Amino acid sequence: MRHHRLLVPGAAAACLLLAIPASAADATPGAPGIGDSYYPSYGNGGYDVSHYNLRLKYQPKTDRLEGTATIVADARQDLSRFNLDFALDVSEVLVGGKKAAFKATGDHELEITPAAPLTSDRPFTVVVRYSGTPSKVVASGFTSWLRTPDGGIAANEPESAWWWFPSNDHPLDKATYDVSVAVPDGTQAISNGTLQSTSSQLGWTRYNWRSSKPQATYLATLAVGKFDITTDTTANGLPVINAYSKDLGDNAGAARASVERSAEIVDWESTVFGPYPFDALGGYVPNVPTGYALETQTRPFYSPKGFAKGANTSLVVHELAHQWFGDSVSLKDWRDIWINEGFASYAQWLWSEKEGEGTAQELADYTYASYPADDPFWKVEPGNPGAENQFHDAVYDRGALALQALRNHIGDKDFFAILKGWTAEHRYGNASVKDFVTYAEKVSGKPLASLFDTWLFTPSKPAAAQARAAEVSPAKAPVRPKSWQRIQDTHSAHGR
């Protein structure tokens, strides 16, 4: 988020400033991608969004979505045109209240040319009117919109926004949100943050949700269907909203037994990672055929299959840990996925330790011993796994192993100070793997580049001497910790 000082120049200077718009000759197009190393076409250049206001109407029977998105942004250059990431049909675009020219390019780019160039460092507003059937729209070879027997769901990573609202679709451009959704009476609409109000008229009920803290586009979610909804508050008074499709079948009990512990888990994680960064929490389990879970901000998405083997609080621990690691502190580039997944996986190790199901050290020992040196597991570098391996087991297991190696090297006092300090220093911002290494060195006072190179950036199993130095080389084959399989199940729950 950027903050601007309000300068008050003399009247003549003020008039002069107001009188100089961007000229057509000086203005240039914003880049069609934000510059991500894995996904160069994701996000856009030339502007920064501060707020999305989405007013939607969705008919579950036909999967028809109609919407008006109002986007508040600041120009970062003199803009002759700019792009939004979007895949549905657009009927009208206004920029600054004036009709703008627009056209679809590629499979998820909406290219907009305003009536006059936009001036750098000045705010502007875009209104986009659109409609479509999200489940039938294919971009980059797939759709991220999930159909259920009674509605539809937007939840995926690294992209899901294209199918329900136009955006600058990259975690570098976080914003606040107001999401207002009208659905037929008897159906609910669930999104992020706090429920501000509901109203009914002529057979339709409108739900108004607000996310008041910066939120990445892939963490915005929409769930429409018929849910059983539970509400509560945490010990600190935060609202807890959980929702379960009414047709979960045999998985219903295990899902509730897991997700209903969200407040307890957040209270525990707050003691380890620092204050919870948002103003609401919960989770939802729709009747979808997928197997993955996702840390959608304040209200994680869980597939029923995540609970097919029974209650799985470890999965809930993982998704809620992401509220600190991934949601509040978001990656700068998708190659930095370790600062999301490595930490959320290590939270499961700490939960296992707390629950007496295996210490983090025992899990580290077992992880190291479980994969022989020639296993492809060691070929993946968690610090830069490649787009094709973003959700590989190594990013989770080896990623958590790197944190245990760090903990052993610098001691518990500095290690846990780093976890809290990191989430405080980068709260609501973006960071990289390199940023974390630098921060850990600052807090511990020790050079750590070699340690991280060994555990995050070497495409081979760390040698026995290196493992002994990190205290993760067991003298004999370790016993499998009780929590191991549940933690492994989380990996498949993150497969896309």
UniProtKB/TrEMBL annotation:
Residues 1-24 form the signal peptide. It catalyses: Release of an N-terminal amino acid, Xaa-|-Yaa- from a peptide, amide or arylamide. Xaa is preferably Ala, but may be most amino acids including Pro (slow action). When a terminal hydrophobic residue is followed by a prolyl residue, the two may be released as an intact Xaa-Pro dipeptide. Keywords: Hydrolase, Metal-binding, Metalloprotease, Protease, Signal, Zinc. InterPro entries: Aminopeptidase_N-like_N (IPR045357), Aminopeptidase_N-like_N_sf (IPR042097), Peptidase_M1 (IPR001930), Peptidase_M1_aminopeptidases (IPR050344), Peptidase_M1_dom (IPR014782), Peptidase_M4/M1_CTD_sf (IPR027268). Residues 50-219 form the Aminopeptidase N-like N-terminal domain. It comes from the Bacteria. Residues 468-496 are annotated as: Disordered. Belongs to the peptidase M1 family. This is Aminopeptidase N. It comes from Streptomyces endocoffeicus.
